[in-house]
Design brief:
Layout (H helix, E strand, L loop, with lengths): L4 H5 L10 H4 L4 H4 L5 H8 L5 E5 L14 E6 L2 H10 L4 E4 L12 E7 L7 H14 E10 L22 H6 L3 E5 L11 H10 L5 H5 L6 E7 L3
Parallel strand pairs: 1-2, 1-4, 2-3, 4-5
Antiparallel strand pairs: 5-7, 6-7
Amino acid sequence: MRASFLTRLLPSRDYLTTSFVREFPGNAILRLIPWTKDGILARHLSSDDRVLDLGCGPRSVLMHYKVGHSVGVDIFDPYIEEARRLGTHDTVMKGDCTQVEFEPNSFDVVVAFDVFDHLERQDSLALIEKTKKWARRKVIAIVTNGRADPPILDDNEFQRHRSAFSMRHMQQLGFKTYGLGLKLPGMNSKISVIDFLIRRLTFPFWFISYYWPRFGYDVAAIHVKTG
C-alpha cells in the first residue's frame, strides 16, 4: 500500500519509513541513481533470483522488484500481518533471525537491511556468517555507519540498536561498502521535522558518501561469493 503524495511529503510519527527514499522504493528513477537503496538492488538482483529478506518489515522494498521467489522473515507480529496482507513476499514467516536455519546455498541472494546492528554483537557476527552460507551468489546488507540511537518506530523494541558496525567493520568481514545518505548534525533529532528536512535537502549530495562511505549515515555492504 503506497501512501498518498501528501503523506510522503509531510513528516509523521513514522516519518522515517514514509520518507521519499524509503516509502517510494519502486520508483524507476531512483533505480537509475547508484547512491540509493534502489539503485543498489537494481544492480544486484535478477528476475530469477531466490531471495531471503531478513527483518523484512511491513513494506519490504522487495515487493517492488520481480524476483523468482522471495521469503521474508520478521519477528514483530504487526509487521508480519501487514507484510502478509500486502503480499510483499511469496512466503512471510515469523522468526528470530538469529534462530532460523536454512540449508547452504538455499538462496541466490540474502538481504538484511537494518538487521545486524539491531542484534547483540556476537549474535550479529554469527548471523553474518550464516548469511554467507545461505547465499549462493551474494549478501546485501545495510547497517548504520557507526553508533547511533535512531527513534523507535511503531513501538517495536526490536528496532533498538544493540551493536554498531562501521564501514571498516563491514570491509573486514569481507564486504564491499558504499555510503547511503550523509552523516550530519541533527540526524535522528527528537524533533522529527529537523531530521525530515535534513534527509530531503541532502539527497542531491548523497553521491559523496556513495563514493566515500566514511561520510555515509548508512553503509550498504555487498558480499559476493567466489568459487
